[in-house]
Amino acid sequence: MIQTGQRNVLTRILAVTGTILVWSPIVFTLVTAVIGTISDHRLRFDYLMPAELFPVALAGSLLLLWSALRARSKQKLIGWGLGTAIFFLISGQAIAIASGLASGAVEPTGWPWALALTCIGLYSLAVIEIGIAGILLIRDLFLSDRAST
To answer: Quick one: which of 44, 13, 29 has its CA closest to 128?
Structure first.
């Protein structure tokens, strides 16, 4: 159920701001990859950047969750995405620390490296899912006014 009126303005602001913040780590990663690749004439891609920018994604996710709760739309999609992102980020870090990858004691090869990378990749996919949910929430919020007029 999407509400209308003055209360809806804050809900829209929260949704738009949250969506921009959630997409920022992904967009920054892609932009720096393109710029770095063009300037160095070889592939440059910082796959850890989305994880390094987790505070930005977290702030955006919390704003989206707040907006979704106010709008009573997409709460589960955003909530599960946020929980999944946090789980995979912590798992990837725990694997890196436990295996010695984080300290550099172990070479980045083998199954610990693959498992840590998989967790970081799944974290990034969860952030993208939250961003898509944010876009869907914004669509619902702005289409609700058109339907009511």
So the answer is: 29
Where is 105: in which H helix or E strand? none
Task: Report how far residue 106's alpha carbon sits from residue 112's, in angstroms, rounded to the nearest whole number.
Answer: 9
Q: For 56-102, how does the pLDDT look when each residue is reduced to its tens digit (9 = 90+)?
A: 999 999 999 999 999 998 999 999 999 999 999 999 999 999 999 98
User: Using the 8-state DSSP alphabet, how is residue 103 labeled?
Assistant: T
Token duo for residue 95: 């694997």
Q: Could you read off the pLDDT of 96-114 as tens digits, one per residue?
A: 999 999 888 888 888 999 9
Evaluated on CA atoms 25, 28, 32, 34, the torsion sign reads positive
What is the 8-class DSSP label of residue 5?
S
Residues 6 or more apart in contact with residue 29 via CB below 8 angstroms: 45, 46, 47, 49, 50
Model pTM score = 0.88
Place of tokens 């995405």: 81
First to last CA, the chain: 16
